[in-house]
Amino acid sequence: MAKNRIQVLLIEDNPVHVKMLEQLLAESAAPGFDVHTAGRLSDGLDRIGTNGNVDVVLLDLILPDSEDLETFARVHAKAPNLPVVILTSLDDVNLAARAVELGAQDYLLKTKLDRAALGRSIRYSLERTRARSGEFDSAMFRLAQQQFLKAAQLMNLDDNMRQRLLFPQRTQIVTLPFWRDDHKMVENVFGYRVQHVLTMGPTKGGIRYHHDVNLGEVSALAMWMTWKCALMQLPFGGAKGGVRVDPTMLSKAELERLTRRYTAEIIGSIGPDKDIPAPDMGTDEQVMAWVMDTYSQQVGYAVPTMVTGKPIVLGGSLGRSEATGRGLVYVIKEAAKRNGSDLSNCTAVVQGFGNVGSNAVRFLGAEGARVLAVSDVAGGVYNKNGLNIDSLFAHFSENRTLNGCPESEPISNADLLELSCDVLAPCALQNQITAANADRITCRILAEGANGPTTLEADQILGERGIFVLPDILANAGGVTVSYFEWVQGTQNYTWSLEEINERLRQLLVGAFVRTLERARRQSIDMRTAALIEGVSRVTEAKQKRGIFP
Ligand code: NAD
After folding, report:
1. What are phi and psi of 348, to 5 degrees?
2. Residues 245-255: what's their mean pLDDT?
3. Whose CA is nearest to atom 28 of ligand 1?
4. Under a CB-based contact definition with an 8 Å cutoff, are residues 536 and 525 in contact?
5. What is the pTM of this model?
6. Annotated active-site residue in 240, 310, 333, 543
């Protein structure tokens, strides 16, 4: 995937070494490296200075125009935050070690280089640099905080409360090792568990496996979970977890070892009455089964209620796996009805074809909507008259890609978002509708299946253009709501029928939709701010009633 490729600047004057390194990097597994070479330090510094498109530097310390530590010092002075890996020969190891003391991330012996060691050194250098610089500093956390501050201002929220809710109550950062399948390489990755508010009951939130996860992103997601649970009147505070890893690059056995170790690392802070994980991007019911098994092994008996979104045979709930997509369509239907239209006369476009997106497509199709386009990370497919949903699913289950779906033409993710339609449902990633494309979004209803797909600037533009936004904390709340049902069924040891579950889900979502819409109209504010105020007010009231300990 080109977007993840790492840009390596190789500053090395020996053509034999350049060739060897280029070859090793070209053979490396994903995410893959693009190598740019410079034979002189001055050329390397120019490259760092001009386009900034360098993620990491591989640096030989002895170059025609610079020698020894001076070489590193000049690179470091030019770009202090850019990770540098020193390439050294056996004679110069002490020099390389000195450069590491002065701020280089790592050094590698040219005589002992192999593909795995080189790739890992580069990836870990990037990881360490990122961990050191502003873990909390993420666009997503800034967005979550800005949204909260906007709501807080409109509510005249007491400043003590405002400060208290702006950051999560508890955060945990872990590093965890797991064996690769060859049992030679141990990978070390970063994991997180964040609990935003512990006032309302146990905390609740998914676990995300994605190569971009960091503390800020997980904190944003935890904060949104707090407002979402409160808006839905569920007895939970918000939490979220994540591991910075690309799960698509792991075998099933590797994924299992990673999951078990991550669970073991955070085991002190999770549990059926403490903090209850669930699936999110990159995780599924199998991952939840491993989480439950690891926890249960530690305490010595089965504890199904410590996790939701697990397989039905382990105490999972009917309807949980499709609940977010189903709930999204319940809310869209309600919004369309109030706009005087029926879903059977509507066109829809869905970004993302994972758990949320694929179920949204399925239920939109079942309501008679014409789905014009869908996409996943590799791109999308489009038919101006509507895709055939059955062939779409048949094609995807056979090929694991949307590309080449019958009676469709390809479309990029960017173009897909700008298609003219009644309902646009971003169900993949955050930060998709921004100031850069908001004035070209031409839907009537924007239904946020994903968390945080719209920036604050884009919200403003969409509002001015009269687009009706179903905000994430309302639109995708179906997942946590049926997770709650799963937890309740587990604690009662009593299961409900699918009809009961779907009907209760519909009632809770429509109730939250109506409360949000009424508040939006009453206060002349947008739906997102109204939903946030609903959530924040409930949490604030609970906090005030409990008071501050001691
Ligand atoms: P998933 O891993 O099942 O699917 C993610 C989908 O997004 C995949 O189709 C993937 O190919 C696609 N994708 C990834 N990167 C993309 C990109 N750059 N451009 C376009 N598509 C891309 O994840 P999911 O569980 O469906 O979650 C999707 C979103 O919904 C996330 O924001 C998640 O936080 C939110 N959400 C999920 C649930 C749930 O119950 N699973 C509940 C509430 C909210």
Report:
1. -140, 155
2. 96
3. 428
4. no
5. 0.88
6. 240
* Whole-number Å distance between alpha carbons of 116 and 381: 37
Sheet holding 203-210, edge to edge: 170-179, 186-195, 237-244, 203-210, 275-279
Structure tokens at 536: 């924040």
Average pLDDT of the residues in 210-217: 94
| Straight-line distance from the first to the last Cα atom of the chain, in angstroms, rounded to the nearest whole number | 52
Residue 27 burial class via C-beta count within 10 angstroms: exposed 0-12, middle 13-18, buried 19 and up: exposed
pLDDT in tens, 322-374: 999 999 999 999 999 998 999 999 999 999 999 999 999 999 999 999 999 99
Q: State in Å: Cα 337 to ligand 1 middle.
A: 27
Print the SS3 string covering 435-463: CCCHHHCCCCEEECCCCCCECHHHHHHHH
Return the pLDDT at 51: 58
Q: Quote the longest CA-to-CA distance of the chain.
A: 78
| CA-closest residue to ligand 1 atom 13 | 377
From CA 458, how far away is CA 74, in angstroms rounded?
A: 41
| Alpha-carbon torsion, ordered 219, 221, 224, 225, to 10 deg | -100
Among 217, 225, 356, 470, name the best residue to mutate to test ligand 1's pocket (greatest count of ligand atoms within 8 A of Cβ). Answer: 356
Residue closest via CA to ligand 1's atom 19 equals 377
| Higher pLDDT among residues 90 and 150, named by residue | 150
pLDDT of residue 19: 95
pLDDT of residue 1: 34
pLDDT of 32 above 70: yes
Q: Tell me which of 196 and 117 has the higher pLDDT.
A: 196
Radius of gyration from C-alpha coordinates of the chain: 25
Among 1, 194, 415, 429, the mutation site with the greatest number of ligand 1 atoms within 8 A of its Cβ is 429
Query: What is the rounded distance in angstroms from the CA atom of residue 30 to the CA atom of residue 172?
Result: 28
State in Å: Cα 280 to ligand 1 middle. 7
240 catalytic? Reply is yes
Question: Residue 75 and residue 40: Cα distance in Å, rounded?
Answer: 12
Q: Which of residues 129 and 261 earns the better pLDDT score?
A: 261
Q: Residues 238-242: what's their mean pLDDT?
A: 98
DSSP 5-30: -EEEEEE---HHHHHHHHHHHHHPPT
